[in-house]
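Human:
I keep going back and forth on a fold encoding question. Comparing notes only helps if you start from a blank page. Show me how you would write down a chain together with its backbone fold. Write it directly below this note and I will take it from there.

Assistant:
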Amino acid sequence: MKKIIVLFTSLALAFSVLGGNFKKEKQEVYDELQLIMTPKEQQEFKKIKTEKELKKFVEEFWKKRDPDPSTPENEVKELYYKRMKETERLFREPGRKPWLTDRGRIYMILGRPTWWNKEVMQKDTTANEERWDYEDLHLTLFFVDENNTGNYLLVNPPPKLMDVLSNEKKRFLPRRVSTGLTLTAEIDRKAGKLYIHIPLSGLAFVKKDGKFYTNFNFHFAYGHPQDPQPKEFTQKMSVPVSEKDIKAGDKQITIPVNIAPLKGQYIFIVEVEDLVSGKKITKTYKVRL
């Protein structure tokens, strides 16, 4: 007989000071969101005492998870509730919300398995069993209804499961908050280049077709200090960035500007506007070439 391991436990909330209807409403919201709440959000949620506070919490909860605030859609929210709806169809078990069962919790974070094999046995003979294979994650899971009650429990989970869940859960956590849009510049006189460096830590990102992009306007102006009208150009840029570089925290985008023809005293004005977050930075450099 396989050893049964209960993988997940729920956190208890105390609602003794709340009214009955509001207590029920708050519990329903908690049941919906608990899988992807951060520890800080758990603490904030416990302190909610009014419907207004609850509504504000939910709005901010999903706002922080919107991968592209410049669009009306919130892809993360849509994916989460799409999977929740699927669990309601697939994993109804006595006494538990479908997305809070062992199968439902895994499905909410990892999605539908590549291969899904169900073995339904005769009652009073042996257990019902499901095998889930996630090929891209190199992960195989077994769920067993040992007593033919309709309650499936995860059995003998592989050691790597918690790391896989933690990594896949990141898509449902609050998006990285930039520490502030910054830029630096350096001149390579020998190459005749001005290099503009924009740290990734200050940029916001959108995810499209499984890839991350940072979208910004790059504006560059230059001229002699006495020039009444400097020369300038603006370019809208969409730069693909790897998730690894985003997480590293010390990577940057470098934009080379050709300044080889320029001689004498010049003023360079560099402006970068993040089109996702709306943040903007402008820097002025006085140099002699």
User: Anything to note?
Assistant: Confidence is low (pLDDT under 50) at residues 1-19.
